[in-house]
């Protein structure tokens, strides 16, 4: 009963508003603030996880040893692209 009375009192207030003006209101602000907070938390988490990643790749022991031996012998080391089959 109280909810219906409150709504009947709010209807005249709604009629006083300009019918051609639409605003997001408080609910729109709350939704935007929650989404902005979620994006901020995701960026913070991504930054923390990216800082844990080691981007320096360690060379394979056999390949490094072979490249070192070839470099000492004067032959150029093979790059990964030169090891591709001719069909690619």
Net shape: rod-shaped
Residue share in helix: 55-70%
Order of helices and strands: HHH
**Number of helical segments?**
3
Total beta strand runs: 0
Q: Spans of 5+ residues with little confidence (pLDDT < 50)? A: none
Q: Assess the beta-strand content as a share of residues.
A: under 5%
Alpha carbon gap, first and last residue: 77 Å
Query: C-alpha Rg, in Å?
Result: 33 Å
Structural category: mainly alpha
Oligomer: single chain
Sheet with the most strands, sense and barrel status = none
* Mean pLDDT over the full residue set: 77
Can you offer a commentary on this structure?
With 88 residues, this protein is an all-alpha fold. The protein is built from 3 helices and no strands. It has helices at 2-16, 25-52, 61-73. It is rod-shaped, with a radius of gyration of 33 Å. The mean pLDDT is 77.
Describe this protein with a few key phrases:
88 residues, mainly alpha, 0% strand
Quick rundown:
With 88 residues, this protein is mainly alpha-helical.
Topology:
Layout: H1 2-16, H2 25-52, H3 61-73
């Amino acid at each position: 009963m109280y909810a219906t009375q409150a709504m009947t009192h709010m209807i005249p207030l709604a009629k006083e508003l300009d019918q051609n003006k639409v605003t997001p209101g408080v609910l729109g602000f709350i939704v935007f603030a929650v989404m902005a907070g979620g994006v901020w938390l995701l960026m913070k988490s991504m930054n923390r996880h990216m800082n844990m990643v080691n981007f320096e790749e360690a060379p394979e022991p056999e390949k490094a040893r072979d490249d070192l031996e070839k470099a000492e012998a004067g032959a150029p080391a093979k790059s990964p692209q030169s090891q591709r089959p001719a069909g690619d």
